[in-house]
Amino acid sequence: MAAFNLKAGLNPITTLLVQTTDLEQIQQELRAKIEQAPKMFIRLPCIFDFIELEENIDLPSLYLVCHEFGMLPIGVKNAQDDHHELLEQLELADFGKGKSKPTRIPKAVKEVDAEINEPTEVSAPIITEEAPAAKTTVHKFPVRSGQQLTAEGDLIIFGLVSTGAEVLAGGSIQIFGPLRGRALAGIKGNSNATISCQSLEAELVAIAGEYKLFENSEQHSSQASLIQLDDGRLNIDSL
Question: Cys bridge to 77: 41, 49, 130, 222, which one at CB 3.0-4.6 A?
Answer without folding.
Answer: 49
